[in-house]
Predict the 3D structure of the following.
Amino acid sequence: MSHSIDRMKNREDREGSPWTGLTAVLTKEMADHLTGARVLILELLILLTAVGTIFTALKNINTTTDNEFVYLKLFTTAQEPLPPFVFFLAILVPIIAIALSFDSVNGEFNRRTLSRVLAQPVYRDALLLGKFLGGLLTLTLVFSAIWLLIFGIGIFKLGVPPTVEETGRALWFLLATVFYGGIWMALAMAFSTVFRSSATAALASIAVWAFFIFFWNIVVGLLLPVFVPQQITKVEDLVTASQTQQLLSRISPITLYADITTILLQPTERFLGFVLPVQLDRAIKAPLPLGQSVLVIWPQLTGLIAATILIFAICYTLFQRQEIRA
Amino acid sequence: MNNLVLETKGLTKHYGGFVAVDNLNLMMRRGEVFGLLGPNGAGKTTTILMLLGLTEPTKGQVRVLGFDPARQPLSVKARVGYMPDQVGFYDELTARENLIYIAKLNGFPRDVIKKRVENAIERVHLTQVIDKRVGTFSRGMRQRLGLADVLIKNPQLIIMDEPTQGLDPELAHEFLGLIRSLKEEGTTILLSSHLLHQVQVVCDRVGLFSKGRMVLQGTVPELARKVLGGAFRVQIQADGSASKLRQALQNLRDVNKVNLDNGTFEIEAQNDIRADAADAVIKAGGRLKRLNVESQSLDDIYTRYFEEVSHESLN
């Protein structure tokens, strides 16, 4: 007890702000990302998928009948065999985020720059947060550019300007996409703190990604019998079973992101998951206003942001405790 | 202003059960060049990291320029330049960009940065390659850039960890020249090394590190007196009766020991007794052929010390 008080006292004694030098680190990280070949390749990749999927979507949008939310349909409309752009986002965003940060800490170790940087009058806090924010801002920048490009192609091809509602929904979706990336970025950064080898950190991050993409639904299927009765006889059981399944699958950030995508980009969707016919009684099949849609996915959105912060906090603790001698 | 730049009292660092630094007492005065000597793993780097507040001491006190590195790390790090062993840079950036980043981390105003960076680069003679990517630099250039990196903040104290490691003799010599020019300007320097003859060239005082303890401390002649007994070694080759000559030499003042080895007399003395020795040889009827004084070498001190220590531990 007295030890922890001592510690708190020391924390207060610490001179200066922990954020000294934050902007220097942040600008350097962003400059590195934006001029590096790595980000260029990823940008090209996402640019190609964007352009490809948007043009197939445009072919399938009939401007005379689909006159509502056409811009959002650019993200979600697909034609076999190509999935819609949102599907690619769910897959590619983690890869980009991981690629931006899998060597952020151990890279400094291996280049032997860490001790030189930390010998300057800055705290470790500024270094790590600067790296993280630099990555997050890079993501924001890249996705904003893609979003603008999509809207630009839309204006050009559809001939109608986007409505305020559409723009608002696209911006919320952009926010969700950035924090969906944030989770993976924080994860990769945590691995880069734990593992001294960048390749190991990248592989570990990719392993987690693959686990959630390919195996999480199987795991949920295996876990479900543990929580709910085998024999479903009543409606209540059915509801519980469905809710439990949903709860489990939402541990995966991919499910959270998919939920957000559905509600934000398809304004007529008002429920997620299992719904009883009774609940739909007298419901009008009309689009929800933006505020209401945001309300539906509020838990998912805050969940994404909370997970990002949580994983970053873990990474932060690991980094603070690390011995910096190579 | 206090003349003490650095002071540690009972500084101790444990890593789990392993004692990396044990009860270290060290003092450095302004303008002094101090050499930390010792084999790899003796605790030199750990000591340096504690001085900079990059590792917390387990016990003991540190004062660097009047600040406590554990409590006021920013004040310490703003005034102390640290050059780590095998200093690393961002290879994809130019020399200038690398230093600008460091200058920004130091929070220098924008208009000062350019000037400081260029001055520092000029000091280490890298102006011609200032806009080349560091990835293309040789080992020696990197090392010099490391020094420029330190000079940017006009440090009151420079700490260098193994500054000449991995440099070929010529580059090492050149680098030592840079250190010496800093010394002449009155910069206080602490450097660690296991390359003894290099340390001897630039350091005013040295401390011998072994297994986390500072076992010897002082100027090179002081250490020589302590460890080698006689600080001077005079070698004489002469024709004549060996026993007579030996007798004559042994009777000289300040002579501790005379050995005859392969026709050469090895004399350990407290002073430079060359003139007296020559005189004695001639008076004893010998014909002097060679007379040489060996300056006290840290290598000898070091080897002798560790020999003695291992002997003691064997006994």
